[in-house]
Amino acid sequence: MKHFKNLDEMVQAIKRDELPRHVISPGAAAAALGITRQSVHDLCKRGTLPCWYAERVILIDGKAVQRRAKEQRGIPETQGELHV
After folding, report:
1. Where do the domains of the chain lie?
2. Which pTM does this prediction carry?
3. CB-hemisphere CA count at 13 Å for 66?
4. What's the confidence (pLDDT) of residue 67?
5. I need a labelling partner for 46 at 20 to 30 A (CA). Which of 6, 37, 61, 68 fits?
6. Is the dihedral of CA 47, 68, 5, 15 positive or negative?
7. Strand bridging mode 51-54 / 2-4
8. CA–CA gap between residue 9 and residue 6 (Å, rounded)
């Protein structure tokens, strides 16, 4: 989990394209994965899901969530997009 000192620093990183263009909230990640928000936070802390944190805002790499959701469902990587 990458920590920013404050929201302004995170916004500047977004403007510099240092974060992926497709980021989602912990709630959206939890819904896509069929797990609790706490479980999403645990995955972020362990480094299993790429995420960024500033103050009380957490952004999660939506593409990583999409790949993990496909793996959980047994869908090959070559199949269509899962919309989260």
Report:
1. 2-73
2. 0.79
3. 14
4. 92
5. 6
6. positive
7. parallel
8. 5
Residue 74 burial by Cβ neighbours in a 10 Å radius (0-12, 13-18, 19+)? exposed
Instruction: Spell out where the chain has E strands.
Output: 2-4, 23-24, 51-54, 57-61
Query: How many angstroms separate the CA atoms of 6 and 75, rounded?
Result: 38
Residue 40 φ/ψ, nearest 5 degrees: -65, -45
Q: Virtual CA dihedral for 61, 67, 70, 72, nearest 10 degrees?
A: -80
73 φ/ψ angles, rounded to the nearest 5 degrees: -90, -5
- 23-82 pLDDT, tens digit each: 999 999 999 999 999 999 999 999 999 999 999 999 999 999 999 998 887 766 555 555
Phi, psi of 25 (to 5 degrees): -85, 165
The answer to whether 5 touches 54, Cβ cutoff 8 Å, is yes
